[in-house]
TrEMBL record, chains A, B:
<keyword id="KW-0808">Transferase</keyword>
<protein>
    <recommendedName>
        <fullName>Phosphate acyltransferase</fullName>
        <ecNumber>2.3.1.274</ecNumber>
    </recommendedName>
</protein>
<comment type="subunit">
    <text>Homodimer. Probably interacts with PlsY.</text>
</comment>
<dbReference type="InterPro" id="IPR003664">
    <property type="entry name" value="FA_synthesis"/>
</dbReference>
<keyword id="KW-0594">Phospholipid biosynthesis</keyword>
<comment type="similarity">
    <text>Belongs to the PlsX family.</text>
</comment>
<dbReference type="InterPro" id="IPR012281">
    <property type="entry name" value="Phospholipid_synth_PlsX-like"/>
</dbReference>
<keyword id="KW-1208">Phospholipid metabolism</keyword>
<keyword id="KW-0444">Lipid biosynthesis</keyword>
<keyword id="KW-0012">Acyltransferase</keyword>
<comment type="pathway">
    <text>Lipid metabolism; phospholipid metabolism.</text>
</comment>
<comment type="function">
    <text>Catalyzes the reversible formation of acyl-phosphate (acyl-PO(4)) from acyl-[acyl-carrier-protein] (acyl-ACP). This enzyme utilizes acyl-ACP as fatty acyl donor, but not acyl-CoA.</text>
</comment>
<dbReference type="GO" id="GO:0005737">
    <property type="term" value="C:cytoplasm"/>
</dbReference>
<dbReference type="GO" id="GO:0006633">
    <property type="term" value="P:fatty acid biosynthetic process"/>
</dbReference>
<dbReference type="Pfam" id="PF02504">
    <property type="entry name" value="FA_synthesis"/>
</dbReference>
<dbReference type="GO" id="GO:0008654">
    <property type="term" value="P:phospholipid biosynthetic process"/>
</dbReference>
<keyword id="KW-0443">Lipid metabolism</keyword>
Length: 346, 346
């Protein structure tokens, strides 16, 4: 049995889509139980709309909500009875195996580090979403809020990402590449140039060198390593270019009577193909390297993405990903001073 | 009369598409003359295929070609009779107003700085392509090879980009934003945090704050400022996501008989709409801040892009962009030591 705490109050579509996603998840698998964390009367009212196996969903009351625009460190410190803090404490105490939230990214990243806590040896927990490619999916690691990374962080991202892709997504010996502005080893900024030889030396990953941004959507590598600023730009541009192009396609199809008739004929086939390029199919982004599993889903998540994010937690637990990460990084030495400092700030 | 030196040997489709683009450009405007620089017999043979006003095209022989994979600094130093070096010397000597090339980016960037030379006050010449957006085009500045920029570089990019958008593209009082991972001023990496207040203080630009990558395709700012590593990632991901999505759309349309019939009806309208999202319509990327105009077009440029890049040079000269950049940066003080060092390396 995998027990997942779900932030019923987080995200643009909370609580309705969150509760719906939770119901869909427990209906699909008998081995999942969900704790909906949030304002009890509100969550109860939502939940009353559905038929579902009662023993698989419970509600844990939390009186506060952390808003997206709140400074994360302050919010985690002051809102002790928020759905995020209550859920994270459940993970920390072992009352839940995982936590899924569509709420404030900043609060989730801070709370993950200061409440759930980092696994021994992990310098910085990366946020690692799966992104759609022509070949399937790639893991983009790191898209978190910790910018200005050091080479040692990127090496850990490569290791953690490889473990995730191999054991959660099921890709044997996943290829790893570092985002760069050219294919040659001597290209890049200072961070990439310092990191490249360290990745080359790593024996436990399948490092294939640099990847140019153009090759990411083609599926040029299974694990795409970068620091968080670049990762954030890649993730958001993926969404932006995709949305703009699809609206252009629709606009084109609606521009004449002839094309409108064509659009009716094309629509079902097109929908099926484009679905494979829809990020929400792949669930949320795990914050890797913590003592428990924390999954961040899109702020605008609908029930489908919430459902997928909850289901994802099962594989994560079954495959004992945290233990594998701990083992993989065990060979390494001390936790950096900076990381220790971050923990001290709250 | 605007005289444009064109690299007849550079790019994947040289010399055929380059020569064709030059012919199309001179047929369109009487006030352009083109010097095709490259291997004389080869260029002559290509040119013989076309009817065109003979007085508007001449050939300048250059016996060597710089290949994309050659280290740029070495190539510029050793291949004195290459089409790139010969053309750049023509610009330097005032024998040509501008140089257009689809050849090695690295060699063009190095040659631009060491042969054509920087305008007084310019610390680093940025490569600034126009990218298509929902609203029209935005200028992405910098996408060059000079990574690890300093805040003062980004401020100059913002000024040069504003001048270009206002006087070449014709957008009054263009909006300027810095690429960031959130909309708030306190977000960002060290470079962005240092640059943000400097941009806010600039009186001669219309700075509107941060832009998240998601908003770039929606046309969130006219001038999108970033350092070259991030700019390169944005430019190449734009191409990559676009190509992947369009191939998915085609695949979807070809997947059943019904959708194939629909595709025939939809095609003309779709083509027209998607054309507005085609980067090649907008010509090449100028390398701003040099003593002459240097324009880099895509390596895979076809005649249409070459033609547009040549036509672009007319507005650039007419509007006296270099003079405007010089005036705008005149208030500033010393040229940086690093930039001086770069000039000394060749």
């Amino acid at each position: 049995m995998v027990k997942v705490a779900v932030d019923a109050m987080g995200g643009d579509n909370a609580p309705s889509e969150i509760v719906k996603g939770a119901v869909e998840a427990v209906k699909e698998r008998k081995d999942i139980s969900v704790v909906l964390v949030g304002n009890q009367p509100i969550v109860e009212e939502e939940l009353a709309k559905y038929q579902y196996p009662k023993e698989q969903i419970e509600i844990r009351h939390a009186s506060e909500v952390i808003l997206t625009e709140e400074p994360p460190v302050n919010a985690i410190r002051s809102k002790k009875d928020s759905s995020i803090v209550v859920s994270m404490k459940m993970v920390k105490a072992g009352e839940a195996d995982a936590f899924v939230s569509a709420g404030s990214s900043g609060a989730i990243l801070v709370g993950g580090q200061v409440i759930v806590g980092r696994n021994k040896g992990v310098e910085r927990p990366p946020l690692a979403p799966l992104i759609p490619t022509e070949k399937g999916v790639s893991l983009l690691i790191d898209c978190g809020a910790n910018v200005d990374a050091r080479p040692s962080h990127l090496v850990q991202f490569a290791k953690m990402g490889s473990i995730y892709m191999e054991h959660v997504v099921g890709i044997k010996n996943p290829t790893v590449a570092i985002v760069n502005i050219g294919a040659e080893e001597e290209k890049g900024n200072a961070l990439v140039k310092e990191t490249f030889p360290l990745l080359k030396e790593c024996k436990d990953i399948n490092f294939i060198g640099s990847i140019e941004a153009r090759e990411i959507p083609h599926g040029g590598a299974d694990v795409v390593v970068c620091e968080a600023f670049v990762g954030n730009v890649i993730l958001k541009l993926y969404e932006g270019v995709g949305a703009t192009l699809l609206s252009k396609v629709k606009e084109g199809m609606m521009s004449s009577l002839r094309s409108k008739i064509g659009a009716l004929l094309v629509k079902p086939a097109l929908k099926a193909t484009l679905k494979s390029f829809d990020a929400s199919r792949y669930g949320g982004a795990p914050l890797l390297g913590l003592k428990g599993l924390v999954v961040k889903t899109h702020g605008n998540s609908t029930a489908n993405e919430v459902r997928n994010s909850i289901l994802q937690c099962v594989t994560f637990k079954e495959q004992a990903i945290n233990e594998k990460i701990r083992e993989s990084l065990a060979a390494e030495t001390a936790v950096s001073g900076e990381a220790g400092h971050q923990e001290g700030t709250v």
